[in-house]
Amino acid sequence: MKRWHRAGRLAALLFGASLATSALADEATDRASSLVARMTPAEKIAQLQSAAPAISRLGVPAYDWWSEGLHGFARFGEATVFPQAIGLAASWDPALLHAVGGVVATQTRDKFLATGFDKNHGRYNGLTIWSPNINIFRDPRWGRGQETYGEDPRLTATLAVAFIEGLQGDDPAHPTVIATPKHFAVHSGPEPGRHGFDVDVSAHDLEDTYLPAFRAAVVDGRAGSIMCAYNAIHGVPVCALPWLLGERLRNDWGFQGFVVSDCDAVDDMTMFHHYQKDNAGSAASALRAGTDLDCGSAYADLRGALADGRISEHDLDVAATRLFTARYRLGMFDASAPTPRDDAEADRALALRAAGESIVLLKNRANTLPLKPGGRIAVVGPNADALSVLEANYHGTARQPVTPLDGLRALWGEQNVRYAQGATLAEGVTVPIPETALRGDGMHVTRGLKGEYFRDARISGKPAFTRFDSKVDMDTDHAPPAAGLDASRYAVRWTGQLLPPGAGDYTLAVRMDRCFDCRGHDPVRLYLDGQLIAGSTGGDEPPSVKLHFDDTHPHDLRLEWEHSGEDQGIHLEWMAPADAQLAEAASAAADADAVVAFVGLSPGVEGEELKVDVPGFMGGDRTDIGLPASQQKLLETVAASKKPLVVVLMSGSAVALNWASEHADAIVVAWYPGEQGGLAVAQTLAGVMSPAGRLPVTFYRDVRDLPPFIDYTMKGRTYRYFKGEPLYAFGDGLSYTTFAYDAPELSAQSLKAGDSLDVAVSVRNTGTRSGDEVVQLYLAYPDAPDAPRRALVGFQRVSLAAGKQRTVSFHLDARALSLVDADGTRAVRAGRYALFAGGHQPSAGQLPATFTVTGHADVPR
Question: Nearest 5°: CA angle at 381, between 375 and 384?
Fold first, then answer.
């Protein structure tokens, strides 16, 4: 009776809280409706565009709805940069995602309040975060797959809900920020042509693979907004697809928030889909279908659609009320809105934890790792000391970034670390000029270049201060390169010498980071031996320069940068002769006890609609999933030293490390690990951290194992439908300790369709050191058409001390036990099922726990 009384009291409290939340939401809607009723049609139309102008007479400040927070508050100055989303997914840790989301939200609101709650807020300074990206990473060739949580619907859904709840906070009526899961729906490349491609997706694959994470984000995570994608489905652009935005999103899932288009997606409906003859028609179609907010300006043409009757003023009212309801819920018009505070040290510690949890150990022959203390290490590879592979894309400006070279020097001591870049990233791709090729003084002692920093955007007079920079590889987005400078106006002159590692042909380049829709680049000038070899007065980026050096004689180098525009960083880069760089790497390996090679990709070659067309890469996507040839040659060169070889892969996607899988002693996947990534990698190699990440994607052996990239059919894709032998499987990952499992215990051996099933799994640490284990539960289905080979239905990351044991429990509801038929109907179906529990997918000889289901029960869409 006492237990029932407590449960009843809790239910009453929850019901009361629900009523209170509903009342507050209704209040926000009422206030929004009242405000919108006082607007003119022209004002309403202006408010439906992402850069919404102020309405002074109504006390409405200007507000740009576009802000980013994929793995840290982005594009508006200093913020904690966590591992890229695919790295966070490799943690398999929803609690971590929730914590990261909370930090992103806090830092976002801090920046908003610093501007002033009642002030105008421009792009990237708002409280509407256009994240997370929960598209399914169905093919490793997609350059934006790094932004996702991987290839599995259950993993993606669980992590998405955790991140969304972290972002929005504990008070549904007053979210800290509003999350925007994207891109709804069925969107995962190719990048070239993304603005106009039409997806021919089956009803089965839509319900089974492409929609579950979005449903969870809305139904379970209660996301306050959602972004519709560029693509069409069966000929209709999704931002104008009534059944998707109306029937499914609002009716089936009960979505109460607002829908925003991907940027310029409405314009794309006219320009690329040719869905309507003009933007008035496209805008009207999108608005009537349920797209409330246009990221772009195509909705300006709603004036014509209103005039000729294609939309009504009521259509405008509905969308505008949804938008202003969000602004009221966010407290944008309330001076008493809560003011969270930033904790830089705690946030940095969380970034380190996140980077450590994301690391996946794939191979560890003869316990090569952890590396023995006191030894000498050769650090090689183009990703060992590059800022971009820490920050990835959609990032903030890292406060104190730690590259792998920095981290290893911190733990092993600089005197025990030999460094050689060893190779470029890929043919035709420049990389930062390393410190080994730069000297800042005439004695050839100080690595890097001497930087003279000026407080004005002109190089004249005496510099404000001088320092030595090991390389010119800087992110200065809304942040100065050094304390004491104005972020919007300064100048830098770097001087020193370039030390060619060998004779041959070189390419030098000054690469500038420029924001979207900016006017042009800052003036830059590059001098070699006193001669201007590359420069820009503020228009285009300076062209790269091809040079030939006959020997290794030092050359005077000077780089000048006058910043007064919107450039967000500067990078002095090169391509050096392969033979010379390989010789440096071989020398470093010969003088070391072990070699650590940092290889992989970069956000400069895989990403969103990039202007890249070199062997293996096109437009941001990949045409080859193998390691680029220049880096493969580097691995073979250092392996010839016969020293233990540790390969650390830094990328946003799976790379076919076929040679390394056979020849390297250890393989570690570090992804794009964020601002503390270098320290996390070093601590993992040293054994301070024990790796426990798991692959959120399949590592295939060859691109030929995959269906065509443009084919959205799931047959032959991901671990659920791929019948070949992968190089490394989804869910794979090793530890520095070992774990053992007892057979799963089921709450029932037979159940009626629609009933739930509880599963208990006992796991123990059988090794000699503490570690984390990711307990994974997979369901194998009866022999039904279109059924996946197996599917993840539950997972938990647990920590166990050596010798300790723990029982992990899973609750499988009807949705977890359901199947989708060819018509897209989800139901629990009769048959015999098998459950496998362990630290990875089922292995040969592993005995399942079986149960039967009787009857049939449909599951809501």
Answer: 75
Class of domain 737-858: mainly beta
Class of domain 429-575: mainly beta
Q: Which long-range contacts (CB under 8 A, 24 or more apart) does 311-318 make?
A: 311/284, 311/287, 313/41, 313/44, 315/287, 315/288, 316/41, 316/44, 316/45, 316/48, 316/287, 317/33, 317/36, 317/37, 317/44, 318/292
Strand blocks (E) in 344-447: 360-364, 377-380, 417-420, 431-432, 438-439
Residue 120 CB neighbour total at 10 angstroms: 13
Out of 64, 147, 262, 294, which one is annotated catalytic? 262
Q: Tell me, yes or no, if the two domains 2-67+92-329 and 429-575 fold the same way.
A: no
Catalytic choice (606, 621, 755, 773): 606
Using one digit for the tens of pLDDT, what is the confidence trace for 584-601? Answer: 999 999 999 999 999 999
So where are the chain's domains?
2-67+92-329, 354-424+579-729, 429-575, 737-858
pLDDT at 3 over 80: no
Write down the CATH number for the domain with range 354-424+579-729.
3.40.50.1700
Q: Could you read off the pLDDT of 674-731 as tens digits, one per residue?
A: 999 999 999 999 999 999 999 999 999 999 999 999 999 999 999 999 999 999 999 9
Within 8 A by CB and 6+ apart from 731, the residues are 694, 695, 719, 774, 776, 792, 840, 841
pLDDT digits (tens, 9 = 90+) for 478-490: 999 998 999 999 9
291 closest CA partner among 271, 277, 311: 311
Domain spanning 2-67+92-329: which superfamily? Glycoside hydrolase, family 3, N-terminal domain (3.20.20.300)
Active site residue 606: yes
What is the greatest pairwise CA distance in the chain? 91
* Average per-residue pLDDT for the chain: 94
* C-alpha 486, offset from chain centre: 30
Catalytic residue flag (residue 93)? no
